[in-house]
Design a protein that fits this description.
about 0% strand
């Protein structure tokens, strides 16, 4: 059974205030000055590259951008066709989900996103598994053996409906909701493969629905991210994951604010 010690919301007041203050600057300096289409594609490429990299895909951000622009016509040297299909399907899943921000978070939406995400790669590793369908066997991943899959899958509808209801009620900060959803979803681990990517997609979909920037967990932060998830199982608390989400969100916003500022400075050799 998933039993998690819930840190009182007021204990995240410091993180919320810091995040909201930086978000105002970020919107003013970065996102409000960009075309929606360009910002959307920038986020899609960056997020897809790092989310797949966490699972072992070797495509760099530049490789991912080239694949997005040229498709399978040109696969970067040293990359496999499997990796290319994995990335292309991630694009499709991202676009399917983020093109309908008004869509409620339901089991149908979850399964269809998984079907798209795993359409061309799931059978390569698990010939008996079906994209969009829950696992029919108990799961293990990394150093973790998950619980009985029938019991875990039975809890998925409640996770989805309660997340949608909480999002509509606006009683919890979207970042906290996104992180808590992610922790609970990864605990349930309902599909044969692709759970990490689906969890990160839906956590960011929650933020997108609430009008917040997405959180991009870079491959360099993989160990810290995995440790934050592990705390949920070992310490029965999600506060580490929530803090990690706030930290990653603020680091990214500050980095892009600084990058925008540095790129706006007049170079000494230009008139």
């Amino acid at each position: 059974m998933y039993v998690c010690t819930i840190k009182p919301l007021y204990m995240f007041e410091k993180e919320i205030n810091a995040y909201e203050n930086l978000l105002k600057v970020y919107r003013q300096k970065v996102t409000s000055r960009m075309a929606v289409k360009d910002l959307r594609e920038y986020n899609e490429i960056l997020f897809s590259s790092h989310s797949c990299a966490i699972e072992g895909n070797s495509f760099s951000v530049n490789d991912t951008r080239e694949l997005k622009e040229k498709g399978l016509g040109i696969i970067p040297q040293g990359k496999t066709l499997f990796e290319a299909f994995e990335m292309l399907d991630h694009f499709r899943a991202y676009e399917y989900l983020f093109n309908q921000p008004e869509a409620p978070i339901t089991e149908d939406l979850l399964k269809e996103t998984h079907r798209i995400l795993m359409e061309h790669t799931l059978s390569y590793r698990y010939p008996d598994a079906i994209p969009g369908e829950y696992t029919d066997t108990d799961m293990c991943a990394g150093d973790t053996i998950f619980g009985e899959h029938e019991q875990l899958i039975a809890r998925v509808p409640l996770l989805l409906s309660s997340t949608q209801q909480t999002l509509e009620e606006e009683k919890i900060h979207p970042m906290i909701l996104a992180a808590r959803f992610h922790g609970f979803y990864e605990y349930l681990h309902p599909f044969r493969d692709g759970n990490g990517r689906i969890g990160r997609l839906f956590s960011n979909f929650i933020l997108h629905k609430a009008g917040h920037p997405i959180v991009i967990i870079t491959k360099e932060k993989k160990e810290e991210y995995i440790n934050a998830l592990r705390y949920i199982r070992t310490e029965r608390t999600d506060e580490h994951l929530i803090s990690f989400f706030f930290q990653r969100a603020m680091e990214r916003m500050q980095q892009e604010i600084d990058e925008k500022k540095s790129q706006s400075v007049k170079l000494p050799f230009l008139f």
